[in-house]
Amino acid sequence: MKTPLLQFTNKGIYCQAADVYLDPWKPVDRAIISHGHADHSRWGHKQYITHHRNVPIVKHRLGEVNISGKKWGETFSINGVKFSLHPAGHIIGSSQIRVEHKGEIWVFTGDYKTENDGLATQYETVKCHTFITECTFGLPAFKWVPQEKVFKEINEWWAQNRAEGKTSVLFGYTLGKAQRLLKHLDTSIGAIYTHGAVENMTQVLRAIVDLPPTTLITGETKKEGLLGNMVIAPPSAHGSTWIRKMVPYVTASASGWMTFRGARRRRAIDKGFVLSDHCDWDDLLDSIKSTGAEKIICTHGYTEIFSRYLRELGYDARTEDTQYEGELAEINTSEPEKAAAP
């Protein structure tokens, strides 16, 4: 029986012909990394290969690792297998990994979204025979509205809170979501303050993209100075002693999970904005169709439901288990380093 070009092992997605892993979750000798989130970029590999914009992110999180950066579309060969990185549109520096060997082409998406958020390089369709797709939001209930509408709602919410003399506290994942929020906030409304985890990552990314000014909240920050302004913080800050400085405040979360009101209630959030760095149901289907792939492998998310629907459409679709979390990472950890520790 022919060995698949990519195999799912207990360490990660393995290319035997090249002896290299894609986003492995256990330490390996050589890893090609799709992006900087903790569930895809882990500590302990001897060699890391990624897009050059992801290099400073990985170094910030993991320290001075042995890492090299590639350009979009740059072909590099390992033991006769051709690899290249292509924009995934998920966060800054996020890549799809194209693998070609003996006329066979596979694409591993990592995490991806097709909407242009103004920060990440926009998603690019890559033709292939086998397409490995996430399906974090692989249910018909998930349908995003254009981000322009969402940010209009966020800025109106902030302006209303300012008029009432309250601090706006908006929760978003430290890497990716927080900077997307910063990029599209209306700074004419007020000043933007940040939690330390958000500020540290934002400073790394300022060398790559243009972001508005922010002020780090410290022990010296006065509550009076926060009133009417915006605070960007990771989800774990909610309910912590840190947030007491914000009183009186109103909270909101920006996440795809805010589609469900029950998710907002469980997190005791005052307001939910539906904003995801992943594809919704329609975008997943459109992306798969555009690749021309006949074989689809579904990972992390609503895998069984989504793959079953794909089979009904005529695809050769199946599921594989991974240790990727998708947007659950926004809920489970405030700093990528916590999830990346060995």
TrEMBL record:
Molecular function via GO? exonuclease activity; ligase activity; RNA endonuclease activity
SUPFAM superfamilies the UniProt entry points to? Metallo-hydrolase/oxidoreductase
Record-linked Gene3D superfamilies: Ribonuclease Z/Hydroxyacylglutathione hydrolase-like
Record-linked InterPro entries: MBL, RibonucZ/Hydroxyglut_hydro, Xnuc_lig_assoc
Write down the top EC class of this protein: hydrolase
Claim: Nuclease is one of the keywords in the record: yes
Top-level lineage group: Bacteria
Write out the entry's keywords from A to Z. Exonuclease, Hydrolase, Ligase, Nuclease
According to its UniProt record, the EC number is 3.1.-.-
Which PANTHER family does the annotation name? BLL1145 PROTEIN, CLEAVAGE AND POLYADENYLATION SPECIFICITY FACTOR FAMILY MEMBER
Q: What is the name listed in the Swiss-Prot or TrEMBL entry for this protein?
A: Ligase-associated DNA damage response exonuclease
Task: Please report the organism this UniProt entry assigns to the protein.
Answer: Flagellimonas allohymeniacidonis
